[in-house]
Design a protein that fits this description.
The protein is built from ten helices and no strands. The protein is mainly alpha-helical.
Length: 249
């Protein structure tokens, strides 16, 4: 293996682990043990394996570091209750009106479980993957999309980096920045504001790195939207239902 090939493997492994770690933080409310691990990671040199250099990335990391530094030495009681309530507002109750799923942001009527969910489901299936329970957490949920991106980047499981770039352009980057901005503006705790900002900044900078590696620029949003519009129009309209022509409930 050449030096360049080894560097690429190292990059892919680092990015895949970072994305898996970020997915884990969005997956469930943080407990005292998770917060201690985060604080330890900051003390050891950083939360992430990839070194982010963009101004927005550094600002987001600073926000998260400050949130962790502002927690009491012993994390229990009220701080944990506040974080649990904030997590519920963001991810469970739609209290912030910032749904963590792609369909809600991209569907014309802001509905969940629409075309984007079926698009990412088809991509997962191409890789032999499926979500555990799409009724509880749809395929296009932030956690699943981060996990899939990690799968694409992992040198042990991924295929071409082009797939990862395309997934960012056609899915995650179409809605994650808006989600993260709304969470950061409306959530009650600095920690979840920082987590949202770091996640969005990370995938933005990751796409820039992939552009440098692949020489493939980011697909403009309007191009992706036009493709989706054409795909919708090319789908045949469902045949009208004629009573007695098919089984009914």
């Amino acid at each position: 293996m050449t030096r360049d090939e080894q560097l690429l493997v190292t990059f892919r492994a680092a990015a895949a682990q970072d994305l898996s770690d970020l997915a884990g933080l969005h997956d469930r409310e943080v407990d005292a043990a998770a917060l201690e691990r985060l604080r330890a990671a900051v003390g050891e040199g950083g939360l992430l394996r990839l070194r982010l250099v963009n101004q927005d990335s550094r600002a987001a990391l600073f926000l998260l570091d400050e949130a962790l530094g502002g927690l009491p030495a012993v994390i229990d009681g009220t701080p944990l209750d506040d974080l649990a309530a904030d997590y519920a507002d963001i991810y469970l109750t739609y209290g912030l009106r910032a749904a963590p799923s792609e369909s809600v942001w991209l569907d014309e009527d802001n509905l969940a479980m629409q075309a984007p969910m079926f698009e990412v489901r088809a991509l997962y299936q191409q890789h032999g993957l499926q979500v555990p329970d799409w009724r509880r957490r749809p395929d296009d949920h932030l956690v699943h999309e981060l996990q899939f991106l990690a799968h694409l980047l992992d040198p042990e499981t991924g295929d071409s980096l082009g797939e990862a770039a395309a997934f960012l352009d056609e899915h995650l980057l179409l809605w994650l920045p808006d989600f993260a901005a709304r969470v950061a503006q409306r959530c009650a705790t600095p920690l979840y504001a920082g987590l949202a900002a770091v996640t969005a900044a990370y995938v933005e900078e990751l796409r820039e790195l992939l552009e440098r590696i692949l020489g493939v620029p980011r697909t403009p949003r309007e191009v992706v939207e036009e493709r989706r519009r054409q795909a919708r129009e090319s789908d045949p309209a469902p045949a009208p239902f004629v009573p007695g022509s098919a089984p009914t409930w």
